[in-house]
Amino acid sequence: MVDRYFSNKSLKLGKRERTRSALIDSAIKVIAEKGFESASIKEITQAAGLANGTFYNHFTDRESLASEAAGVAIFEIALEIKEEVKDIEDGLDKVIVSSDKVVDRTINAPTWGKIIIGAWHHLDDFQQDVAQIMRSDLNLAKRQGLTSLPINKLLEYQICSLIVLSISLQLKNGRNKATRLETAEAILRLLGIAPAEAKQRAQKALFG
Amino acid sequence: MVDRYFSNKSLKLGKRERTRSALIDSAIKVIAEKGFESASIKEITQAAGLANGTFYNHFTDRESLASEAAGVAIFEIALEIKEEVKDIEDGLDKVIVSSDKVVDRTINAPTWGKIIIGAWHHLDDFQQDVAQIMRSDLNLAKRQGLTSLPINKLLEYQICSLIVLSISLQLKNGRNKATRLETAEAILRLLGIAPAEAKQRAQKALFG
Amino acid sequence: MVDRYFSNKSLKLGKRERTRSALIDSAIKVIAEKGFESASIKEITQAAGLANGTFYNHFTDRESLASEAAGVAIFEIALEIKEEVKDIEDGLDKVIVSSDKVVDRTINAPTWGKIIIGAWHHLDDFQQDVAQIMRSDLNLAKRQGLTSLPINKLLEYQICSLIVLSISLQLKNGRNKATRLETAEAILRLLGIAPAEAKQRAQKALFG
Amino acid sequence: MVDRYFSNKSLKLGKRERTRSALIDSAIKVIAEKGFESASIKEITQAAGLANGTFYNHFTDRESLASEAAGVAIFEIALEIKEEVKDIEDGLDKVIVSSDKVVDRTINAPTWGKIIIGAWHHLDDFQQDVAQIMRSDLNLAKRQGLTSLPINKLLEYQICSLIVLSISLQLKNGRNKATRLETAEAILRLLGIAPAEAKQRAQKALFG
DNA sequence: AATGAATGAGCGTTCATTCAT
DNA sequence: GATGAATGAACGCTCATTCAT
C-alpha cells in the first residue's frame, strides 16, 4: 500500500475519485522508484492494491496518468516550500532559498528528485508548472528593484534548468554544499547580480 | 536506408567497419526520431538494412551503441563548429557563438537536436563530452580577463543546460531569434557579465 | 488440443485452475514428444490452445512448469499402480510387479515413458518423488524378512535406475518380455536374492 | 586454448585432421563445463581458437561432433583404467575396481563426470561404448566361475546405470565413501553374489 | 466500478547456419 | 581449408490492453 502523500482528502471523495487518487499516489511512488519508463501499469495498480484492469477505467494510457501524477507531486511541493519561505522578504533570497529547498528535498527524499528529473524532459505541462512556481518571487524581486531583467518564461525555464542540473548531480554524487552554493550564485548571476555580490548573498541566504 | 552523416569515408573501410558505421548512423537517426528509450534494436538494424542479429556482432547491448552514437554525433558537431569559430578571438564571443551554432544546427537538422536532448539525461559520458567542448574557450576567456569566475565542471554543465533548454524550446516552438539572443545573454550573465554588457555583446556576436 | 490425462475434473474447477491444468497437460505431452530441453513455452501454450503470454500468468518459468508436470505425471501413475498391486501381499513381488507396471505403462503410452526418461536427469525433486514411491513396499519386504539389506535412498535410486534403463531400452527397441524379466531379476538380486530364486520369483510374479 | 587430452598425436596428422581433433578436444572441454545442451558451436570453435564457420567443414551438426567427442573421451578413460587394473586377477574385483575408478575419476575431474552424465541419455552409441568396456572383465569373471549369470548387453547396461547413478549423486553431494562401497556391493549383488560376500569383497577390493 | 485471466505484439538476445572472401 | 560477418528464426519474457464476469 502506498502512503497518501497527496490525497489525504480522499475520505471526503466519492469512490471513483478515491480510486483515481490511489492510482496517482501509487504512480508517484513507483515512478520515483523505478523511473519513468520502467513504471509499468501492473506495478502501479498492484502498489495501489488494485487490479490492472482498473487502470483503464480512469486513464487512457500511462502517459496520461504520469502527467497527472507529476503535476500533483510538484504542486504539493511548491505549496509546502512557499509556506516555508513565507518570512523571507527579499525577493532574490526567496528565489534562491526556494530553489535550494527543492534541491534539498530531492536529495533527502529521492522519491521526489527522481520523479522531477524523470518527468522533466517527458512532460511539457510539467515544465510549465514547475517554472511558474517561481514567477511570483521573481516578480517580487523585480518590484523591489533587485533585478533589472524582464521576467519571462524563458528566464523561469533557465532557472529551472539550473535547479534540475543541481538535483541531477547531487543525486548522482551525493549531497554537496559547494554545488548548492554555486547553483545559488549561478541563479543570481543569471538574474544580473554581479559575481561578488552573488557570492555574498548566496552564502548568507543559504547558510546564514 | 539511412543517410551517412558520419561515415562518408565508409568506402575506404573494411566490411566490418562499414557495417558498424551503418549501425551507428542508423541508431542516430532512429534515436532522433523515436527517442532514446523507444529506439529498438530491430528498428535500428532494419533502418540500416541489416538483420537484427547483426547488431550483436558489433555491440553488446543497446546502451553501448547509443553512447557510441551520441559520442560520434556530438564529436562531429564539435569539430565542425570549432572550425567555424576559429577566427573569433574574444573568448566570450567564442563561447556564445559556438553555443548558438550548436542550437542553430539542431533546429535546422532536428536529427541532431533530438539526439542531444534524448541523450542528455541518459548518458553520463555524453554530458561530460559535451561539457568539455567549451572548456578551452572558457579558459581562453579567463586568460583574457573577461571573466573572474573559476572555470569548473559545474559551470560547464550549467552552460550546457542553458543550451539544451534553448534547443528543446526551439525544437518545440520553432526557430526564434529572441530565444537565441536571450540564451546568449544568459550564458554571459552566468559568466559574470553585467546585464547591459551581456545584451550588447550577444547582439553583436550573434547578429553582427 | 491435448488429451486431459490428469484434469478430467477440470469442469468442476475455476477458470484459473482449468487453464493451469491445461498447461500442465500440454507440457506433459510436449515434453514427452520433444524432450525436456526442446519443449518451448510457445509450443506448450499453443498445444493448449492458449497464447504464449498466458503461461506467465501461471508459472514463473519453464522449469517450474516442468517440475510440476513431471510431479503430476508420476504421482498419478503411482496412485494407479498402487491400487493395481494392492492385493499382492509379498513385499518383493509388490516391488517387481510395480516396477514392471511402470515400465509396461510407458511402453504402451510412450508419453509417460519419455517424460520419465526426460525428467530423470533434469529434476532433482523428480528423482526423489519417484524413488519414494517404492519405499513402503521395500520396507514391507524388509519387515517380512525377505531382504536383509538396509533400505536407504541409494538403494531406491538404484532400483529406479534399473527401471529407467528398462524403459529406455524398450522405448527404443520395442516391448520385450526378456528385458522385463531380466529387469525384475536384477532388482531382486540387487535386493540380495540369489539368482536362482530371483529367476523363479520374477517368472512367477510377472507371468504367473 | 584447450589442453590436448586426446590428440597429442596431432602433430603427426595432416592439417585437416589436426583441426578436426582440435574441435573434438574443445567440444569435450566445453560440454564438460557447460553441459550438453549449452555447448554452443561458437563457444566450441572459439575455445579451439577457430572461427565458427570452420565447424561446418568437419561436422554436419552439433550432435555429430558431440557423439564423436563422447566416444573419444570414454575410450581414452577406458584405456587408462584398463592399464591401472591389469594386475588384478579376480574378474569380479576387476569389474568393481574399474567401476570405482571411473566414478573416482569423474569426481576428481568433473570434466569427465559431467560429460558422461550429459551424454548418457543423449547418445545411443555412447552407451554402447561404455557398456562394452566391462565386457571382457565380466567374461573373465564368468570363466573363473565367479558368477553364474549369462553375460549380455542388458547386464552391462545395468551395471553402467549403477555407475552413472553413483557419479551423478557424488557430483551433486560430493565424494562419499559409503556411496562408493554400496555401489560396488550393488554391482556384485547384481552379478549374483550374496549380500554378505558382496560386502566383504567390496570392502577389500576398494579399500584393501 | 472493479476484476484479473487472457491476449499477442514486441522486446532483447542467442545461435546454428550460410557464403563471399 | 579457414574465415567471420551476416543472417533470421526462435527463444524466454514483458506488458499494455481487452473483456467476460
Short description:
Chain A is mostly helical and 208 residues long. The first copy, chain A, has helices spanning 15-34, 41-47, 62-84, 91-108, 110-120, 124-133, 135-143, 153-173, 177-190, 195-207.
Description:
Four copies of one chain form a homotetramer. Chain A folds into two domains: about 10-60, Arc Repressor Mutant, subunit A (Orthogonal Bundle); about 70-205, Orthogonal Bundle (Tetracycline Repressor, domain 2), CATH 1.10.357. Chain A contains ten helices and no strands. Chain A has helices at about 15-35, 40-45, 60-85, 90-110, 110-120, 125-135, 135-145, 155-175, 175-190, 195-205. Chain A starts with 14 loop residues before the first helix and ends with a helix. The relative contact order of chain A is 0.11. The interface of A and B includes residues 120, 172, 189 and 190 of A. Chain B binds a DNA duplex (21 and 21 nucleotides) through helix 1 and helix 3.
Helical run tally of chain A: 10
Radius of gyration of chain A: 18 Å
N-to-C SSE string of chain A, H for helix and E for strand = HHHHHHHHHH
Write down how many β-strands of chain A occur, each being a DSSP E stretch of 2 or more residues: 0
CATH architecture group name of the largest domain in chain A: Orthogonal Bundle
Secondary-structure-based class of chain A equals: mainly alpha
What is the overall shape of chain A?
Answer: elongated
Oligomer classification:
homotetramer
Largest interface: A-B, 28 and 28 residues
Mean pLDDT across residues of chain A: 85
Helix content of chain A: over 70%
- What characterizes the major β-sheet of chain A? none
- Stretches of chain A where pLDDT is under 50 for at least 5 consecutive residues are 1-11
Q: Whole-Å distance between the termini of chain A?
A: 40 Å
CATH topology of the largest domain in chain A: Tetracycline Repressor, domain 2
Q: CATH homologous superfamily name of the largest domain in chain A? A: Tetracycline Repressor, domain 2
Strand content of chain A: under 5%
Work out the count of structural domains of chain A. 2
